[in-house]
Amino acid sequence: MMSKHITRKRIAMFAMLLFPFVAGGCSMNPATGKKHLIFISQEQEISIGTEAAPEFEKEFEGKVPNQELQAYVQMVGSKVSAVSEREGIPYEFTLVASKIPNAFALPGGKIFITAGLMSKMTNERQLAAVLGHETGHVAAQHNVMGMQRQVGVAVLVDIAGQLAGEDKAGAAEAVTKVVAGMAGLRYSRNDEYEADELGIRYMTRAGYNPWGMVELLTVLLNLSESEPGSLTEMFQTHPLTTKRIEEAKEIIEDKHKDFSPTKADPNAARFLRMRRILFSAVSELAEK
Ligand SMILES: [Zn+2]
Q1: pTM of the predicted protein model
Q2: 129 Cα–ligand 1 center, Å
Q3: How far, in Å, from the CA of 101 to the mean position of ligand 1?
């Protein structure tokens, strides 16, 4: 362990020599308590996510064109993100029209859930679980570190610089690189466990029954058995194993004993009303 620590320190020093003007650095993540080497500042992280969001949204067939639905997803997302640890992140939750079940988080707090995923859920705490899980990826900075791996640190720092500058064409090219990098991003199993744990923490703090996380993971697992092709994309970015369900159960049984898995979600009726609106907004979903 000791040598690992020293190695990290040496890497940090080496990085500072290489990138003397980089705004980031080695800091402790407030959500996980872990030390990470991040090469861009929080401000740069937010600007990269903000710039990439419109193109990312287009990739998933654009926003579902219904104000009430968007406001509802934003309301549930705001509840879970408001109680997460990183300060100054402008979380924003968008329901996109893609029928393929999936959810994503861009660096800086732009979070997307597809109509395909929302249509498979049966209550609000399951929605809170997905949005809490994605908030967890942002809070733990998994996606920033993922981009550093995927796009490369030097390129990422370059992108951040271009976005801050006057070079509009350079910035547009930079955004395309980010979107491609994010689309190819694979979280590790450990990132997934950590995002589940943070999701459980946030949904509980926000007043939701954390068993919604186990329900959600079970819905996905059943779906992977009944419609194996439909979740390929989601499982590439967020690996799902039965072990994730076991781990989530263990956390809830250990830390949130007061909640019962059999108690009905008091907000289920509200969710189902929204799901009906979603079915009529994205008509092909209703035909299934
Ligand atoms: Zn995930």
Answers
A1: 0.87
A2: 11
A3: 13
